[in-house]
């Protein structure tokens, strides 16, 4: 048993809470303390204190606020990842600035995030989700990135790669990418590596709430040769463009005339696997339309979303690629596909862009 768990119940996850609000620290401690497998072992009032206490108490997970005095959450995250990397769940407000900083944090190594509630009552309601994120993060592998420039969610500080010529015709071939925990960082690596003359259309279904997917799309667009944007209802899937499923909606794929051409629609139907968007919904639609002209790519993520849809897609002739365990922050979604025996390839993240670039082959 690891040293940090000795003297505690087997499977106990220890947590460091970092927030400048006494009230919020109290509410977080109460929310997490109700779970029998979670123990809050320390609190920090700012990023500098969080850095020091990470060294001293060696928690399994840190719940880290974004806006704090002396050292903010983003600066603290960079310092923590350079000193003693540990799974971090960011605690961010549902604002434009909060979304931008959260996405930067996910790129720098944070495992997950929780939109910060406006009151203790709302946090009580979100307690179950918070506990699930902490428990899932405890088994995650933080991926520390040191080679990134300071590119914000809206592309500030970055330079967009020169796009290649595209004819923007309706896509005959489609790549559907599904991801969850660890997905934003994986997409940060994958999408900018795709060539500007990609021969297929791309749809990305990342588990995120409304307000974050648009910022993620702008960030990816600023770093990519391809056009990346949040999908709009009725939009046609075209060659060489990436559509990101809007947070809070399933992204449906509907036939657009004859042949494999398609358009998308937003759907506020019931949650699937507890999330919306769910990639299973998109794949169930896309499979019969595109058949063997579809590629399914399942990246890092908690849970089993994507496995059922990938199985249906495979039955229609699609190619299925999943991220391998070593490069995944959480090998949940890829593993679910692997255990169904439907994967054509299990690849490290760094090899998946080349596989997509060569599709169709």
Sequence stretches where pLDDT stays below 50 over 5 or more residues = 1-7, 148-157
Task: Please report the first level of CATH classification, the CATH class of the largest domain.
Answer: Alpha Beta
The total of beta strands comes to: 14
> Could you tell me the mean pLDDT?
89
Largest beta-sheet details: 7 strands, parallel
Helix content: 25-40%
Order of helices and strands: EHEHEHEHEHHEHEHEEEEHEHEHEH
Total individual domains: 2
Taken from the alpha-carbon principal axes, the silhouette is: elongated
**Helix-and-strand structural type:** alpha/beta
Beta-strand percentage range: 15-25%
Strand order of the largest sheet: 8-9-7-6-12-13-14
Q: How far apart are the first and last residues' alpha carbons, in Å? A: 48 Å
Rg, nearest Å: 20 Å
CATH architecture of the largest domain: 3-Layer(aba) Sandwich
* Continuous helix count: 12
* CATH topology heading of the largest domain: Rossmann fold
Oligomer: single chain
By CATH, the superfamily of the largest domain comes out as Methylesterase CheB, C-terminal domain
In short:
The protein has 361 residues and is of the alpha/beta class. The chain is built from twelve helices and 14 strands.
Describe the structure.
This protein has 361 residues and is of the alpha/beta class. It has 2 domains: 136 residues, Rossmann fold (3-Layer(aba) Sandwich); 184 residues, Methylesterase CheB, C-terminal domain (Rossmann fold). It has 12 helices and 14 strands. The strands form 3 sheets. Strands 8-9-7-6-12-13-14 form a 7-stranded parallel beta sheet, with helices on both faces. A 5-stranded parallel beta sheet has the order 2-1-3-4-5, sandwiched between helices. The chain has a two-stranded antiparallel sheet with strand order 10-11. α4 packs across α7, α9 packs parallel to α10 and α10 crosses α11. The protein is elongated, with a radius of gyration of 20 Å. The N terminus is likely disordered.
């Amino acid at each position: 048993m690891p040293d940090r768990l000795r003297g505690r119940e087997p499977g106990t996850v220890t947590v460091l809470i970092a927030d400048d609000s006494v009230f919020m620290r109290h509410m977080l401690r109460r929310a997490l303390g109700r779970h029998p497998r979670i123990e809050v072992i320390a609190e920090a009032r700012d990023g500098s204190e969080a850095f020091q206490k990470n060294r001293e108490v060696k928690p399994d997970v840190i719940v880290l606020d974004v806006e704090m005095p002396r050292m903010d959450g983003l600066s603290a995250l960079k310092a923590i990842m350079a000193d003693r990397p540990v799974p971090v769940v960011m605690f961010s407000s549902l604002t434009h600035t909060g979304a931008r900083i959260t996405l930067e944090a996910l790129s720098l190594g944070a495992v997950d995030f929780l939109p910060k509630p406006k009151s203790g009552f709302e946090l009580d309601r979100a307690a179950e989700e918070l506990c699930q994120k902490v428990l899932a993060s405890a088994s995650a592998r933080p991926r520390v990135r040191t080679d990134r420039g300071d590119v914000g969610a809206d592309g500030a500080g970055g330079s967009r790669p020169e796009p290649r010529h595209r004819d923007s015709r309706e896509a005959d071939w489609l790549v559907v990418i599904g991801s969850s925990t660890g997905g934003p960082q994986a997409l940060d690596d994958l999408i900018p590596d795709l060539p500007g003359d990609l021969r297929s259309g791309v749809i990305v279904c990342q588990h995120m709430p409304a307000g974050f997917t648009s910022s993620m799309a702008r960030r990816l667009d600023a770093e990519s040769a391809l056009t990346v944007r949040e999908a709009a209802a009725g939009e046609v899937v075209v060659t060489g463009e990436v559509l990101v499923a809007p947070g809070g909606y399933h992204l449906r794929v509907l036939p657009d005339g004859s042949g494999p051409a398609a358009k998308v629609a937003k759907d506020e139907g019931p949650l699937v696997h507890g999330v919306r968007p769910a990639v299973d919904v998109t794949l169930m639609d896309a499979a019969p339309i595109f058949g063997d002209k579809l590629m399914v790519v399942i990246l890092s993520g908690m849970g089993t979303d994507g496995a059922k849809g990938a199985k249906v897609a495979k039955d229609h002739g699609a190619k299925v690629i999943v991220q391998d365990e070593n490069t995944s922050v959480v090998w949940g979604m890829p593993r679910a596909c692997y255990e169904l025996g439907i994967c054509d390839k299990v690849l490290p993240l760094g090899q998946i862009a080349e596989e997509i670039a060569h599709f169709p082959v």
